[in-house]
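The material for today's practical consists of a large collection of protein records. Getting from the letters to the tokens is the skill we practise here. To make this concrete, we reproduce a full record directly below:
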Amino acid sequence: MDFINQVINGLSTGSMYALVAIGYTIVYGIGKMINFAHGEIIMASAYFAYVGMSFLHLPALVAVLLSIILTALLGVLTEKVAYKPLRGKGSLEVLITAIGVSYLLQNVFYMIFTSSGRTFPQIMPKGAINIGGLSITYITIITLIISFVATGILLFFINKTRLGKAMRAVSEDQGAAQLMGINVSTTISLAFAIGSGLGALAGVIYGAKFSIINPYIGQMLGIKAFIAAVLGGIGSIPGAMVGGLLMGVAESLTIAYISSDFSDAVVFGILILVLLIKPAGIFGSNVREKV
């Protein structure tokens, strides 16, 4: 039973990784770039919710919705100011800019809130449901529900709505999509807004799960979520979800049966194995480029 409990705990953490990984996937799929500042945007979302509840005394649901809106706007602002001028440039320029944006956001929140951890308000009920020998916390249940519902809504939006079809068209061929009357710039901004908004849910979940937030929580969270996106096949939304869950389970089992000191090593080991065995990821496919 202990093994199953650890798997369930891993699924809870993995669903948080999945939400962030989906943000990476959407931006990569539409804009053909990796937003390595995504982890810091998630960190910002946790602070937005924290300020809403602790300083503005908003109800938890209102504070979370405000955090999602502000985080989506931050994502769009980042795209407009930092990445849009680099369209058509090499990947190295984009990578350096993303690192710069990452450290900029870290330092802005450091100056405002200092490096001291802030206690995140309790927004999820404590306690657990006991089924036989299994103990499933309410936070785990709520986290899994939020993640699967958000992913389902996103898949419906991408596959069934007009804007979603426009995003798929831009993902396939930006030039052809533009000739068909699709505003590529607006579509890419929408991808950043959606990816950041989903990430805001992960930021709130992180705060609720670990209770303490600081300006550096986005670093490792962003890296692990990126590895999850690569594991599942970057560009694939279901792949990002599966990759995040697998990452969470692997991390939980490592902490339980080996040592917490090795959890990060296992995560990076998974990345190396994926790159060696199947670089395109579980759901990814190799794409040939004409030269």
User: Anything to note?
Assistant: The CA atoms of residues 120 and 211 lie 5 Å apart. The first strand starts at residue 118 and ends at 119. The longest helix spans residues 2-31.
